[in-house]
Specification:
This protein has two domains: 86 residues, 2-Layer Sandwich (Alpha-Beta Plaits); 122 residues, FAD/NAD(P)-binding domain, CATH 3.50.50.60. It has seven helices and eight strands; from the N terminus they run ββββααββββααααα.
Length: 226
């Protein structure tokens, strides 16, 4: 489609590990999606059917190849829950994360949505949900055209409604989520945690936070754009 995919690639590499070990039986209050700080770093736990996906953020001063060995990955998992035996690792791979967006969602009769239109850190699940919202809006636009809406105006509205939301909500919020998780200073971490705790105690702040994080606000603004 000859569309520029502008933005950046974050410098860090993330190590993905999957295991059937039941973290939920060993970590009190663990949710199905948990972003966790540890001394000098962080990790995340995502529950999927039959296993946990663990994202390990490696030591930036050591080669990635060293930290992808079975012993090194086992040591990283042992930091989460210490065991007398090694972890059984079902899958392992490194990956890089981007923050990018195309310059337009439409090129004639061709359209992009989801990861083809915007890439962001997975922290918070913004990209997947934003991609689903893209698909719903595009389907609505195509349906309207089939029902005799003016084609160019309605199809251009897809870009006008979704691209600003990707830029100002999806990419921006995901970038803030990444920055919070990569915070290393203990005092700053405590301040961030206190702020989140205070939000849960304030009904209006909590409602606003949930509307923003669940992307309901983004849908409302998109609907009002055209």
């Amino acid at each position: 489609m000859d569309l520029p995919f502008e933005g950046l690639t974050y410098p860090e590499t993330t190590l993905l590990v999957t295991t059937q070990f039941p973290f939920e039986d060993h970590l009190e209050g663990l949710s199905n999606v948990s972003y966790c700080w540890k001394d000098g770093g962080n990790f995340s736990l995502l529950k999927v059917p039959g296993r946990w996906r663990v994202s390990v953020y490696p030591d930036e001063n050591r080669p990635i190849e060293e930290q992808m060995t079975g012993d090194a990955l086992n040591a990283s998992l042992q930091e989460i829950v210490a065991r007398d035996v090694s972890y059984a690792i079902a899958e392992q791979r490194p990956y890089r994360v981007h923050m990018r967006m195309v310059t337009g969602y439409r090129r004639g009769r061709m359209f992009v949505a989801g990861d083809a239109a915007h890439l962001n850190t997975p922290a918070g699940g913004m990209g997947l949900n934003g991609g689903i919202h893209d698909a719903f809006e595009l389907a609505s636009a195509l349906t309207d055209v089939l029902r005799n809406a003016a084609p160019d105006a309605r199809l251009d509205a897809y870009d006008a409604r979704r691209r600003p939301i990707a830029r100002d909500d999806i990419l921006a919020q995901a970038d803030r989520n990444r920055a919070r998780m990569r915070e290393r200073d203990p005092e700053r971490r405590r301040a961030l945690l206190r702020d989140l705790q205070a939000t849960t105690q304030d009904r209006e702040k909590l409602r606003a936070y949930l509307r923003r994080s669940s992307m309901i606000d983004g849908l409302a603004r998109a609907a009002a754009l055209v």
